Amino acid sequence: MSSPRTTWLGAIAACLQRITKAGGYNTDTGAMVTLEPHPVLGESTTAQVGVIWVRQERPQQDAARRTHRLTTARIVAYLPATYSARQEALDDIVADIEAALADQQFRFPPGYEFPKYQSAEPVVSAPADGWVAAVITVSGHIPIR
Q1: Residue 43 pLDDT > 70, yes or no?
Q2: Which of 78, 70, 118, 71 is nearest to 98 (CA)?
């Protein structure tokens, strides 16, 4: 039996695996979606997404404190890009992730909260490195077990 974290992260990954140009997205990042441990940035020539669990804490709602934990995950998206196309690639991958997560509550089992968008940040690389990355932070309540 999977842990609640693994179940929740797997549902997020299933959403992200939908990201393909054939599916109407800007990139084909969904072809390589991984859970922990995530890929090392800059070591691949293909687009990748890692879904990484980073924190659990008490829920904010009193009613959920005995049954759920507020869980935070980071979606690390890596996309090869030329120097002149870096900003466009960054915008494309963030837009793809936001679109892939939209209206996907049905992928999450009962009792698991759909991940709520918290923030997005670019990952800065040297211009000659040939890649761009973004970290999108999401959170949601999941059962304790």
Answers
A1: no
A2: 118
Cα–Cα distance for residue pair 39/34, rounded to 1 Å: 8
What is the number of alpha carbons within 13 Å of residue 134 lying toward its C-beta?
A: 22
pTM of the full predicted structure? Answer: 0.91
Separation between Cα atoms, residue 24 and residue 129, nearest integer Å: 28
Inter-CA distances, 51 with 60, 61, 83, 84, Å: 23, 25, 26, 28
The CATH number for 40's domain is 3.30.70.1700
Cα 130 to Cα 18: distance, rounded to the nearest angstrom: 25
- Summarize pLDDT for 79-95 with one digit per residue, the tens: 888 888 999 999 999 99
Q: Which of 83, 88, 60, 67 is nearest to 129 (CA)?
A: 83
- Of residues 135 and 40, more confidently modeled: 135
* Pick from 87, 71, 57: nearest CA to 8: 71
Three-class SS string for 30-73?
HHCEEECCCCCCCCCCCCEEEEEEEEEECCCCHHHCCCEEEEEE
The residue segments making up the domain with residue 21 are: 4-143
Q: How many domains does the chain have?
A: 1
